[in-house]
Write the structure tokens for this entry.
Amino acid sequence: MVFVSPLPQAAGYAVVLGLGLTFALFMNSVAWIQSKFSQYSPSSASEFSAASRSLKTGLVVAGIISSWTWSLTLLQSTTQSYLLGVSGGYWYAVGGVIPIAIFSVIASKIKINANRATTFPEIAYIRFGTAGHLAFLWCGLVCNATVSACNLIGGASVVTALTGMNQYASLFLIPIGVAFYVAVGGLRATFICDATHTFVLLLILIGFGFVIFESSNIVGSPAKLYDLLVTAANTWPVQGNYNGSYLTFRSQQGAISAVLFINNGFGLVTCDQGYWSRAIASNPTSTARAYFLGGIAWFAVPFACGTMLGLTARGLATLPDFPVLSEFDVGAGLVGVRVVTYLMGTAGSILMLLLIFLSLTSALSAELIATSTLLSYDVYQHYFNPNATSHQIVTASRYFVAFWAIFSAALASVFYAVGIVSTSPWLFYFLGVATSSGVFPIALTFLWKDLTKAGAVVGSLGGMAIALIVWFTTAKAYMGAITLATLSNLWVSFAGSATATIAGGVLSVGLSLWRPANFDWDKTKMMIGVKEEGAARQPPPASVSSVLLNGGEKDNEKDCAADAALEIASSAQDAATVTVDVLDIPALTRTFKKYTILFAILATIICFVIPAPLGGAPYIFSPKFFEAYVGVMFVSHGSASSRNGMTEFTLMGLAIFCFLPRRHLTNY
């Protein structure tokens, strides 16, 4: 059966332009109300780029879920389960959770050692000078450019498939609409939209799950889907899976995918300014908690997409009237689109269009504000206008938001023109190869005082160069040619991505151990910030320096250093001011240790305790075990609907979980 676009082109333009305009008007109103009736104004550089460093846990969690829920997240996790079975979506989810959860540990150190930073390259400049600053800036821009294009290509492909809308039109119109509300409201605007988008997105996914496993006459239960997957394994056995089954964790490709996804996730999170912006924007008391909860909550999204849409697509493929999924369709991430359209008709197509649009605009808004922050602070202010005022930086940021919207659309169009859309894993794998070399150098910049300039620069850039060489040579040696298809091979990509992380780590740590830097963290704790117009520079309380530097214990030498820094800054012709924060350093240190332990526990559970018994034994899910597996998906997805976990949506998930076996157990 040939798939025909179920919606008219007008529907595509209505969603892209109509919803884009609606969100822009909504955020304009919010920005006006915020400026009129609160102490926060989007015209302030600190508010525009860092939300005045005042965001609470709930908004940050929503922002993390939303910014990590790319259109690629929904599409690729579905594709992985379609190709590999139950392990595909699970390992994709684990690959995203681990980097986010460990960022809760790094976030604590950001607040301790560099609370006044706005971007991560700023700290590189203080520690390593211009060479380190440019190296980290390059890593950040490469990451943001590829992520932006990746999101646009995946989202625009779905819009085109569902509505027949011109691909290039969607590639340009979507970012323009997002740029409108980001340029007006800044980082806080993206958080508010993230919260709205995430809520609707999770509701849509819950609706899909209920239709697939409860109300559908075609599937209607885990038991029926189980039968379809058994038939699919007999027709298209999975190479490397135990008995070719889609219902087993014993999978060679699944195991290598797990390592690849986790490794790529580390590179993306570390090099993407969007995650640093969220850590910087959050209240010091809630930063680590927000990232840890955000990571756990996000897990449910790809896990649910893979289980609901990916496995269902593979099962439905055994039915004669289900649309044939070509290699192009699978590569473009259209597996889930075919499922909801087949099961739900026009309503499903509309919901899928809305789902992808919300995920795309949320993720893209994070990239726009993150990149504009990099360009305004680390390019405009740093190299062209060192004495830039708050107003000038905000103005520059808004121009850069518009610039990046156009640039990312153009880059995505180039990728689409050369055929990358049909091999969408290439972009994801390229991200890992290009960014993973920055994991150790960038993270250690905030964690390790002995990291040197040579280690940071050679580790990040040298590791990237080595990884690209290994990626290309492995494709040539292993696959016989260097093409988009061969570079998208799982083993080839694993070689390049793993090389990036290992080379970056070995070079950065090795060169630093040779001649340790012994950096003085006081230099980053007393950073010079942009002076807000009309803000009086008030001297900090006498006890502030000691509270900042050692948690309240008097240290005369460090106090003198802080006073000297303040005195120097005050003579800088009012171009900037030093902001010294009253921070509870002992409490932040305890938080760092607490979330280090929690991360270790979480990583052990989801990487070993759960999958090791399932994958180590030659086991294929039984019907009842598969029902329980689906129930866990509903519970985890319900928990993701709130920052604190057990809510009405969790109860909904539990109710569905308990209801399904009672109704459908008679199938066996």
